[in-house]
Amino acid sequence: DIIRGKDLYRRDSRTDKLEDNLKTIFGKIYEGLSNGAQKHYQDKNGGNFFKLREDWWNANRQEIWNSIICGVEEEEKYFRDRCSKGGYYKNCRCINGDVLTNFDYVPQYLR
């Protein structure tokens, strides 16, 4: 949510500093893109690069969720029954090998 610019927590100066850092990071990524890609991601919202951030998240979300979820003990009940098709959670993945990325679609305040 933070990367995509959709974070609900906006209550102190630390979030402003984080947002400024993200603008800088994605500005550098933008500068490294080819002209065609720069045109696609051209930002008219003051350097927020929301479309670039969204696409970056979609390209990297599986690895990020893998890192988050692999830190959770297997016996934690929060991830049980979260896999589709009757699978189960074990070794950081559903039985079919998928990483649990479905939390992207859960409203932030419910996570």
From TrEMBL:
Gene3D superfamilies: Duffy-antigen binding domain (1.20.1310.20). Residues 1-111 form the Duffy-antigen binding domain. One of its GO terms (cellular component) is membrane. Pfam families: Duffy_binding. InterPro entries: Duffy-ag-bd_sf, Duffy-antigen-binding. GO terms for molecular function: host cell surface receptor binding. This is Erythrocyte membrane protein 1. The gene is var.
